[in-house]
Amino acid sequence: MSATLLAEEMGFYHEALKEAKKGLAEGGIPIGAVLVYEHKIIGRGHNRRIQKGSAILHGEMDAFENAGRLPAKIYQHCTLYTTLSPCAMCSGTSMLYNIPRIIIGENINFKGDEVLLASRGVQLIILQDQQTIQMMANFIKENPMLWNEDIGVYPST
Amino acid sequence: MSATLLAEEMGFYHEALKEAKKGLAEGGIPIGAVLVYEHKIIGRGHNRRIQKGSAILHGEMDAFENAGRLPAKIYQHCTLYTTLSPCAMCSGTSMLYNIPRIIIGENINFKGDEVLLASRGVQLIILQDQQTIQMMANFIKENPMLWNEDIGVYPST
Question: How far B153 CA sits from the closest chain A CA (Å)?
């Protein structure tokens, strides 16, 4: 993992990774996220497409939802940690709430709307964490149709 | 309401408006949406911030969620009807799933990420429906802090 993160930040990233592994253990898509405010995790979650038959509970969305209703002034000082580059939905949600900083596990298996996020002034840090890359690559290889469904891609292969 | 919609489309818009009114009757934020595929409503919903303590269930998100898990090829032929111009989250979700067309009740009280959607090739039709405009204006006037929370605005006034 990149040495550019502080030890505390690496700890938060590992919590997002734990969420991804939890999702995998549940039979779900292994993507996890945590939302951090003032050095504390205030929301955590993982992709629940399979577990809840959900079209919107990507890992980041689940973390936002589990953080509950918050005023804008909180979000504007949060960092979002996610194991995978955020798709358009999760990028849009981060933009709605003006999340200023996103730590991303990897963007090798999927590159989301990073250019859009950066154009809105969001700071992005890409870790290219090998463990995360491998876990996601294995999942996609074994579940290509499910993965395509999750990212809105057609035809499924 | 604009005469540019077909009678069938006007009917679908009225269903979105019904959802908004249902939300208002529940004590919630009056924004509703329906997702239409092949002349049928496959998902409907309304903002549930208050009702479910949700940070992500905007009207459009609720409609996507209630439509359930769908393959990309379905979304790519859907029209989304929503009473209010879609925020960054709902715009991003529409982009994730490549929704090609969005019918919007009004963008007077709030203008979402229309420029972004248009830049991605999404067809937008803005109705400027007077009943919708008035309902939303009244709600915002009476609940400014709640409204600011829903659209991630600070300071709340």
Answer: 5
